Amino acid sequence: MKRVNILLGGPKSEYPDELSKSIKGIPGPWVGADRGSLYLLEQGIIPDIAIGDFDSINKKEQRLLKDNIADFKKFPPEKDDTDSELCLLAAREKYNAQEYYVYGATGGRIDHFLVNLFLPFDPRFLDFYDKLYYKSATNTIRFCKPGRYKIYHENGMKYIAFVNLGPVTHLNIYDAKYKLKDFNAGHPVSWASNEFLNETIDFGFESGIVAIIQSKD
Amino acid sequence: MKRVNILLGGPKSEYPDELSKSIKGIPGPWVGADRGSLYLLEQGIIPDIAIGDFDSINKKEQRLLKDNIADFKKFPPEKDDTDSELCLLAAREKYNAQEYYVYGATGGRIDHFLVNLFLPFDPRFLDFYDKLYYKSATNTIRFCKPGRYKIYHENGMKYIAFVNLGPVTHLNIYDAKYKLKDFNAGHPVSWASNEFLNETIDFGFESGIVAIIQSKD
Q1: Last residue of a domain, one of B137, B172, B198
Q2: Cβ–Cβ of B189/A213 closer than 8 Å?
Q3: Which positions fall inside the Thiamin pyrophosphokinase thiamin-binding domain (chains A, B) (predicted)?
Q4: Disruptive mutation site among A114, A184, A194 for chain B (greatest number of B CBs within 10 Å)
Q5: Secondary structure tally for chain B: helices H, strands E
Q6: What residues of B are in contact with residue A166 (Cβ under 8 Å)?
């Protein structure tokens, strides 16, 4: 399986155009969290899996999901994991895909967004956090394991940021507008508002987890 | 000076009601970043200081700001600091206030938000990061230095999250819906979706920086 799509519970105002205007053009199966599943049905897409505590939708809407979606997993609101975590783990288990496109991961409650941002530190996501792409209207976030990378400029985005989410060693940005040489820290830093000089940027680091955010205003 | 208000460049859709509907009821002087200053003028409020590269507003709008605001600081877009950082440092220098209410710190570009979230690690903010309150439509964020605290339930908010922004030792949540006992980690974790059982929550930690986020859906 190449690509799986996941719709979390973040607000519609954060959806990128591909989701709000041309969702049927997006390849691959869907997994929906909570009222994300309802949005998919409204768009004529039947997700393979629906997961959540569904406390943000009413009984009739829950029945609609249950009647249409083969794999409907309802959890109690008191569960230990967020809907996001449950969704991503279920998608990983079912598909073992090469790419996980995640929509609705941003906006709304910041504590939920930060769970999504920091989940690469959770050992359960170790084998696939570098295959996640969080997509919002103005941002794409991906995560990198230690190594050296060539980053491609995403169509329509103006800025690129490198964010060491926790401790990092030997972080280098070789050929962007703003270079960084052999940076080490024990805490997170958002190296914001960098830009491409060429079609690609070379960067790398020796230990830690780095998020790459391409964005526009 | 008790309270200063700062309006950063985040989108209006993230403004809390007090800002979008009754801004004149907010006590204290204002500092505006970039087009935040323009919004303040439109609302009939003259900020004491306007800071930014102002590349998101046109010449005529810049002239309006310059003619009306005594302290108009224009920086080149290539500067090392974000508008947020410059604004907060200028407010600190001018007022040395007890509380800095910061609006427009969330939404839009995530790399900018993360600069705001991680700035307590920057030594220039060490003496006042625990006096910052980031306010959005559905979230209030504040930062704590090591110690033991009694947190008060903010009117209208449902959830509370404790987020160790980097390494933390002996993090304890004593009397919330979900307790936490003597947690230690070298990386950030968002302890999301906690709730008040009483009017206050006792919590504490020995080293690190913890953000407290009160939120609603």
Answers
A1: B137
A2: no
A3: 147-211
A4: A114
A5: 5, 14
A6: 166-167, 186-188
pLDDT tens digits, B135-181: 999 999 999 999 999 999 999 999 999 999 999 999 999 999 999 99
Domain co-membership, A109 together with A21: yes
Beta bridge partners of B127: none
Sign of the torsion formed by the C-alpha atoms of B149, A121, A169 and A204: negative
* Rounded CA separation A179/A203 (Å): 9
Q: How many angstroms separate the CA atoms of B174 and A154, rounded?
A: 46
One domain for residues A203 and A121: no
User: Residue A161 is part of which domain span?
Assistant: 138-217
Q: Kindly provide the ipTM of the predicted complex, given to two decimals.
A: 0.96
pLDDT tens-digit series, residues A186-209: 999 999 999 999 999 999 999 999
> Which residue carries 């940005």 as its tokens?
A173
CATH number for the domain that contains residue B171: 3.40.50.10240
pLDDT band at B186 (very low <50, low <70, confident <90, very high): very high
The 10s digit of each residue's pLDDT in A104-147 is 999 989 999 999 999 999 999 999 999 999 999 999 999 999 99
CB-nearest partner of A189 from B82, B118, B139: B118
Residue A173 sits in the same domain as residue A212: yes
pLDDT for the residue numbered B2: 95
Q: Are residues B107 and B149 in the same domain?
A: no
Q: Which residues of B touch A129 (CB under 8 A)?
A: none
Query: Is the same domain home to B18 and B111?
Result: yes
- Preferred mutation among A142, A187, A194, A215 to probe B, highest tally of B CBs within 10 A: A187
